[in-house]
Amino acid sequence: MKKIYYNLVFLLISIVTTHAQQESETSIDPMYKEIESAFELCQRNKYGEAIEISTKVLEYSIEVNDDNLRARAYNVLGNAHYFVNNDSLSFHYLFKAKDLYIKLKDTSKIILAYSNLGVNYRVYDDFSTSSSFFKKSLELAEKSNSPKQSVYPLFNIGLNFVGQDDDKDNDYEQSLIYLSKAEGLAERYYEGEAIIGEISQILIFVHYKLGNYKKSTEYYNKTIAFSKKYNYLNVLAGAHSTVSIINAEDKNFEKAYAALNEYVTVKDSVSSIEQYEKAKQVEADNFLKENGLKLKLKEKENAIQEAVITETRGYNIILGLFVLVLLLLAFLLYIKVKELKRAKERAENLSKVKSDFYSEISHELRTPLYAVIELSNLLLREDVNVRHREYLESLQFSGNHLLSLVNNVLELNKVESGTMKIQQLDFDLKNILANIIESLEFALRDSNNTIHLVYDNSIPDVLVGDSLKISQIFINLISNAVKFTNNGRITVTIKKLEELEDDIKLYFEVADTGVGIPKEKQHQVFEDFYQEHAKVEKSYKGTGLGLSIVKRVVTAMGSKVQLESEEGKGSTFFFELSFKKSQKNNNVVELYSLLQKEIEGSNILIVDDNRINRLVTKRVLGHLNIESEAVESGRKAIDLVKVKAFDCILMDLHMPGLNGYETTEQIREFNKDIPIVALTAASSEEVEFKIEKYELDGYVLKPFITSDFVEALNKAIKKHRRATA
Fold it and tell me: Could you give the CA distance from residue 81 to residue 530 in angstroms, rounded to a whole number?
């Protein structure tokens, strides 16, 4: 909740001075006068009319391709929607205005756009983002040597320093610095305008908080005199409100009450003047018309009332009862609607909290898993003794097993929230299966099982589909087979069923010689969290999500997983899936080698706040014959890119200070050409939602498959090479 001061004082002056700024402009096109009239309507609180006119101007500006007129229409629409509390549209239009002004290189309008966005963010108590926009506005004003345009950014920054909920977070000394600068420039360039009184009003409170009581009183008197001289009633009301709060804090309740009384009087005047004038005008217009007919109408009215009074009394009673019942029903409906609304808000809040939790837990678990899996992979490539290799394989299996569990939980959340998507990307099916079997080698040895892959070699090497979903299906099916099989055999079969010019249908099967599943329990194995306890000596307990996820993913891909099992003789899971055939070269090994060869010798910048992750990524790049340099923060990355050339940047997204998105945004301000690829443990949904907005060239999720990593790097680097060729 905002502070009392912030609510009573700041809001009194924010309506005109801190928002809805727009510079006038002359043009032959009459539509420029239309947008000016819309802006004036907005200033007079006629937001509906302002939105209607601005929408027509916007349509016209698009038709005639006038970016300047379109930007002005966006600005008025953003301001109008701000005042009618349509926050999402306000942000939408103000950002569009900002982008167009940047495109037009119109510095004065860019300053204005940044200021308006700063006010929007302040309404949501996001003072950090708000101040960043005001500071951008101030920097541009100072660079363009425009002291007049510095007034509003200086004033707004000073206001932000005293707008925090907790008074301990306010910095009155910093506020005084900015407000004093704003005051000097305002008196020089805005003589007689409201901004001078508003600055004085805030300085009443700031000086009071700093213990400068004499100065505080001086500014109070100055604000009162200025407001009365130029008839700025809102500023006058704000000054009285401020002094009322100050006296209340000092327990001088008599003066507080007196100032509050002055505030109420002024506010009543502001509210009643317009209504009073309208009432007077209506009264004057009607007086002459009514006066001449008054006596005749009165006589007729008395006669009519006398005739119908008896007849209508009964009807009035019935009507009154009917209205009473309607009001009662309306009240009950209102109560019910409020309850339903609260329930809906609670459900939406719980859903958001749950989604945020899954996103955060994904990042927190994938980050250390990246180090565990990639370091074990790197070390297994080294010449290690048999005993150490066994330890590393155990570590690698544990990491992959934990990653599989994390993916299952996240996939379940996607299904429940309706956000599961099936991607269509090139992938090598046989290579995926080989990698999965290799990752489970430790579990196979520990349970003394053998695994056999029966693969139809007539299947094209490269297919189009969701490789992550395919991996998830087979990791869960094979892990399930290992769990319920000891000293046995697991067979993975993939056969071609049908092949057309562009499509191919495949049959998939995972069979084991384990304990099997009783008939009466076979319908339960695909339920969430169901666990059939294995009757074998060595079995790995699970979460009960594996087969449930398999069923959901296979169903989402347009098929159905089926089960055949007999107790004591093993189980067979099977299904069919169709894929598009890729246009890529089918020799995947040669293709991967070619992609790797093309980026060998590149120089890549790694940006990651985690020291271990920096080390791991650097070692992975080293194995790919790629040079690299690593920094631990976004700020250091920006400084380094300004003085040194890199072929690509690998950007972590979740970092303290400047996060990866903000770092990318700042780099793009001075370097549009350098490829930037997100290397992150965040969820793919979060990254896909923001990747285009922040001009990222791709992303790789930690932990990654090396071939996917190489392909993403190659694609990003090639894209920028073509753009600059």
Answer: 51
Q: Return the H-helix or E-strand segment holding 489.
A: strand 489-499
Tokens linked to 381 = 């490539």
Cβ atoms of 681 and 669 within 8 Å: the answer is: no
Give me the sign of the Cα torsion angle 660, 666, 668, 670. negative
The pLDDT value given to residue 238: 77
**Dihedrals phi, psi of 448, to nearest 5 degrees:** 60, 40
- C-alpha angle 640/644/648, rounded to 5°? 85
* DSSP bridge partners of 631: 607
pLDDT in tens, 363-421: 666 667 666 666 676 676 666 676 666 666 666 666 666 666 666 666 555 555 555 66
H or E element: which one contains 409? Answer: helix 386-417
Which pTM value belongs to this model? 0.41
> Euclidean distance between the first and final Cα of the chain, in Å?
55
The token pair at 636 is: 């250091």
- Between CA 207 and CA 204 the distance in angstroms is 6
For 380, the token pair is: 């297994």
Q: Residue 635: what pLDDT?
A: 94
Residues 460, 464, 467, 469, CA torsion sign: negative
Alpha-carbon gap, residue 72 to 82, rounded angstroms: 15
Concatenated DSSP letters for 558-594? T---EEEEETTTEEEEEEEEEEEEPSS-S-HHHHHHH
The CA distance from 75 to 89, in Å, is 11
Sign of the torsion angle spanned by Cα atoms 697, 701, 703, 706: negative
Residue 412 amino acid letter: L
Tokens 């890549």 correspond to what residue?
604
Q: What is the radius of gyration, based on Cα positions, of the chain?
A: 35
User: CA-CA distance, 123 to 133, in Å (whole number)?
Assistant: 14
